[in-house]
């Protein structure tokens, strides 16, 4: 998956077009983006000062916390981000969680206009982040209305749900990991084990403790089987009060929302690195063999066969080179 972005580039482009238009523009445009997000932008030439932006976004959780739509905390966060040029319309238009009335005449001219429109274009990210913030900021709360040790399933992408579990003095985030290729599973497993080792060191003692297990943690017992069927195990982070203090709250929420994207980016980069190393070594070997003209034809056939088999050899190399740190150095380091 792509990294979750704070600002919608397409929405930003449309709003900038409206703002810089020399004459009133008639717009009734539906925009669809990653994660089943829909924007509806309306502008009337008869009333150019008032434009409407409606947003439909999947709620992170369908539980009791958000059963009535956007919470008052989320609404307050939206008001803080947006400028005086934005007004929340109550109720929102049918089929949307939020409708904003934009008075473009109130947006200041110059460089500040670009900043304000960028903030408006990030409103969907504000909605999504504020829902998770509302859960994490009450990490020490004694309110048991949501239930201790009861998993809350969070979904902002249909194929990549994760769970938040409230426990005494901490909240645990659990990510079921799934990969299409066996080689990706091997790389990811090595990465998760390294993440645990680094996280337990003194240098990273302030970071949220990380654990990885090939089987679901006990707290997920009773959850749907399809959500617990993985080939990459389960990664858990323990969030305590010190991880959500002040500006840390925003960083923690952003890291959790982008964890899947970060892992897959790491796996893709590592796989490409190993394949390039293998190909380079293979070419070096063939170059040595080709120095003997008597075996030139046989060497060309061997080269063709080697490239056809490189994908299968990649999996074997993954198993071998990630079996121990010492072997990683021997195989991956060309020196």
UniProtKB/TrEMBL annotation:
<dbReference type="GO" id="GO:0005885">
    <property type="term" value="C:Arp2/3 protein complex"/>
</dbReference>
<dbReference type="Pfam" id="PF04045">
    <property type="entry name" value="P34-Arc"/>
</dbReference>
<comment type="similarity">
    <text>Belongs to the ARPC2 family.</text>
</comment>
<comment type="function">
    <text>Functions as actin-binding component of the Arp2/3 complex which is involved in regulation of actin polymerization and together with an activating nucleation-promoting factor (NPF) mediates the formation of branched actin networks. Seems to contact the mother actin filament. Arp2/3 complex plays a critical role in the control of cell morphogenesis via the modulation of cell polarity development.</text>
</comment>
<dbReference type="GO" id="GO:0030041">
    <property type="term" value="P:actin filament polymerization"/>
</dbReference>
<keyword id="KW-0009">Actin-binding</keyword>
<dbReference type="GO" id="GO:0005200">
    <property type="term" value="F:structural constituent of cytoskeleton"/>
</dbReference>
<comment type="subunit">
    <text>Component of the Arp2/3 complex.</text>
</comment>
<keyword id="KW-0963">Cytoplasm</keyword>
<keyword id="KW-0966">Cell projection</keyword>
<dbReference type="InterPro" id="IPR007188">
    <property type="entry name" value="ARPC2"/>
</dbReference>
<protein>
    <recommendedName>
        <fullName>Arp2/3 complex 34 kDa subunit</fullName>
    </recommendedName>
</protein>
<dbReference type="InterPro" id="IPR034666">
    <property type="entry name" value="ARPC2/4"/>
</dbReference>
<dbReference type="GO" id="GO:0051015">
    <property type="term" value="F:actin filament binding"/>
</dbReference>
<keyword id="KW-0206">Cytoskeleton</keyword>
<dbReference type="GO" id="GO:0042995">
    <property type="term" value="C:cell projection"/>
</dbReference>
<dbReference type="GO" id="GO:0034314">
    <property type="term" value="P:Arp2/3 complex-mediated actin nucleation"/>
</dbReference>
